[in-house]
């Protein structure tokens, strides 16, 4: 599939913890032999949830995608999924915390009904579970000093200005910078998002390259910085969308399809989408295009 590659920053990096509640996640999941679902389970899944009045959701405590604040489950995925399940007649999300690598195996084992964690849609994951249509895309942005003294707007302007750009070590953003023609000696590797913010504030880099979602969240605790408008980087002429969605057990196609119908109503209404998710750093730039389909992303 030429138009919408599945390469995602959160599906690309090696596992490492990050400051401020942001967790970088591994790309591939090992297949689990137990499916945890069968056709009977899938046929009446939504009716079952309506009768019991709640849906069991898993999260990985990764802000701003899905995390617990006090006793309240917050984040992009819970906010969106709560709205969707209410429309489907299920009023309550009951959360279960999971390690990232355990999300799909736990789903397969029937520990919960849906993964609400902003999981990137990849062919490897599609082999083990059902994904909704994309809930969001993850355009890239640049964190700069307050006032944007170098007037950087994207990678082309960064190259033209000859600035030093920070990226997370091992992350796909490094390839974005190189693909835009920025010299390797102008690309500085950093270990954690907060390291990038500190490097910008300290003048060790002129800009820090990461998803706009993550940078806007990071800027909340680094007021000396600001974040540029998000943009879609390209690799070999192909735009990088990096989409994520909700995850269901195989056999629960009926539930997934009902979810998708309500999701479409939200992503088709820009103002409603932005209002619902703005507190978590999501805006119109994260709205998935109508032509971006999970079936294509699952093919690779």
Radius of gyration: 19 Å
Q: Share of helix among residues?
A: 25-40%
Shape: elongated
Largest sheet: 5 strands, mixed
User: In order across it, which strands form the biggest sheet?
Assistant: 6-3-7-16-8
Low-pLDDT residue spans = 1-9, 11-43
- The tally of beta strands, per DSSP, is 16
Mean pLDDT across the residues is 87
Counting DSSP H or I runs of 4 or more residues, the number of helices is: 12
The topology string of helices and strands comes to EEHHEEEHEHEHEEHEHEHEHEEEEHHH
Give the structural class: alpha/beta
C-alpha end-to-end distance: 6 Å
Q: What percentage of the residues does DSSP assign to strands (E)?
A: 15-25%
Keywords: Signal
InterPro entries: Ectoine_EhuB, Solute-binding_3/MltF_N, TAT_signal, TAT_signal_bac_arc
Domain Solute-binding protein family 3/N-terminal: 54-277
Pfam families: SBP_bac_3
List the helices and strands and how they pair.
Blueprint: E1 16-17, E2 23-24, H1 39-43, H2 45-52, E3 54-59, E4 67-69, E5 72-74, H3 76-87, E6 92-97, H4 103-108, E7 114-120, H5 123-126, E8 130-131, E9 140-145, H6 155-161, E10 165-168, H7 173-179, E11 187-190, H8 193-201, E12 207-211, H9 212-219, E13 225-227, E14 234-235, E15 238-239, E16 244-248, H10 253-267, H11 270-277, H12 294-299
Parallel strand pairs: 3-6, 3-7, 10-11, 10-12
Antiparallel strand pairs: 1-2, 4-5, 7-16, 8-16, 9-12, 9-13, 14-15
Keywords: Signal
InterPro entries: Ectoine_EhuB, Solute-binding_3/MltF_N, TAT_signal, TAT_signal_bac_arc
Pfam families: SBP_bac_3
């Amino acid at each position: 599939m030429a138009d919408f590659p599945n390469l995602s920053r959160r599906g690309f990096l090696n596992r490492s913890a990050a400051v401020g509640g942001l967790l970088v996640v591994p790309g591939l999941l090992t297949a689990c032999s137990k499916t945890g679902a069968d056709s009977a389970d899938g046929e009446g899944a939504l009716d079952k949830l309506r009768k019991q009045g709640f849906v069991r959701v898993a999260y990985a405590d990764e802000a701003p995608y899905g995390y617990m604040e006090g006793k309240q489950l917050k984040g992009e995925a819970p906010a969106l999924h709560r709205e969707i399940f209410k429309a489907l007649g299920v009023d309550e999300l009951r959360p279960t915390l999971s390690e990232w690598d355990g999300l799909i195996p736990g789903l397969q084992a029937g520990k919960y009904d849906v993964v609400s964690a902003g999981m990137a849609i990849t062919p490897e994951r599609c082999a083990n579970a059902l994904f909704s249509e994309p809930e969001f895309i993850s355009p890239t942005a640049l964190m700069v000093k307050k006032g944007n003294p170098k007037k950087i707007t994207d990678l082309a302007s960064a190259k033209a200005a000859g600035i030093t750009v920070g990226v997370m070590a091992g992350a796909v953003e490094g390839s974005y910078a190189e693909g835009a023609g920025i010299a390797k000696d102008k690309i500085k590797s950093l270990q954690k998002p907060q390291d990038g913010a500190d490097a910008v504030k300290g003048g060790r880099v002129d800009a820090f390259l990461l998803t706009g979602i993550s940078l806007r969240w990071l800027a909340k605790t680094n007021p000396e910085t600001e974040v540029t408008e998000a943009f879609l980087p390209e690799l070999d002429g192909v735009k990088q969308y990096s989409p994520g969605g909700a995850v269901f057990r195989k056999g629960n196609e009926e539930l997934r399809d009902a979810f998708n119908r309500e999701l479409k109503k939200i992503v088709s209404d820009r103002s409603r989408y932005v209002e619902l998710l703005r507190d978590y750093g999501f805006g119109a730039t994260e709205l998935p295009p109508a032509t971006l389909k999970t079936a294509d992303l699952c093919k690779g």
